[in-house]
Amino acid sequence: MAKPAKARKAGVARRKRRILVLHGPNLNLLGTREPEIYGRETLDEVNRRLELAARVAGAEIAFFQSNHEGALVEAVQGLRNRVDGAVINPAAYGHTSLALRDAFLAAPTPFVEVHLTNIFGREPERRHTVLADLALAVIAGLGAQGYPVGLRALVDRLRAG
């Protein structure tokens, strides 16, 4: 027999989950760089979409974008005890950066990896990710819509414990 769900006390709000969204190299050029592949939505538009999704999910959200591997590594190292989880589009670094992978291992934080394109249907060197086995999920091929999908899934998993 299933146990009844515990009722939440009236007036007690759930704690907002703190989420950092990390955008990797060249994502600052979204909307103008190869729009037939990456879409026409700009990074600012993606972030606004995520702000709305965060409000709906009851999460606090912050953003960081860098074209520099070391800056992304330092951002990941700083996740511990600062946020509850992360959404990352490592872009090309997802295929190559052992330094980024090591940073996630050193600062274990639940995260979802997002790719705008279906990396598994692209060139052979893009068909793998060095972060996938560490991630709660990998979302690929949904374009900019993959970000809020990843955010909602992450927040749901964090709340579930």
Q: According to CATH, what is the topology? A: Rossmann fold
Average pLDDT works out at: 91
Number of domains: 1
Classification by helices and strands: alpha/beta
Shape-level CATH architecture: 3-Layer(aba) Sandwich
- What is the terminal separation in angstroms? 22 Å
CATH homologous superfamily (4th level) name: Dehydroquinase, class II
Low-confidence stretches: 7-12
Question: Regarding CATH, which class?
Answer: Alpha Beta
Strand content: 15-25%
Compile the SSE list and pairings.
Blueprint lengths: L16 E7 L11 H4 L4 H15 L1 E7 L3 H9 L7 E5 L3 H4 L1 H9 L4 E5 L21 E4 L5 H15 L1
Parallel strand pairs: 1-2, 1-3, 3-4, 4-5
Helix pairs in contact: 2-6, 3-5
Q: Top keywords for this entry?
A:
161 residues; alpha/beta; Rossmann fold; 5-stranded parallel sheet; 6 helices; 5 strands; 17% strand
Detailed description of the structure:
The protein is α/β, with parallel strands linked by helices and 161 residues long. It has a single domain, classed as Dehydroquinase, class II (Rossmann fold, 3-Layer(aba) Sandwich). 35% of the residues lie in helices and 17% in strands. Strands 2-1-3-4-5 form a five-stranded parallel β-sheet, with helices on one face. Helix 2 runs parallel beside helix 6 and helix 3 runs parallel beside helix 5. The longest helix is centred in the N-terminal third of the chain and has 15 residues. The chain is globular. The chain starts with 16 loop residues before the first strand and ends with a helix. About 4% of the residues have low confidence.
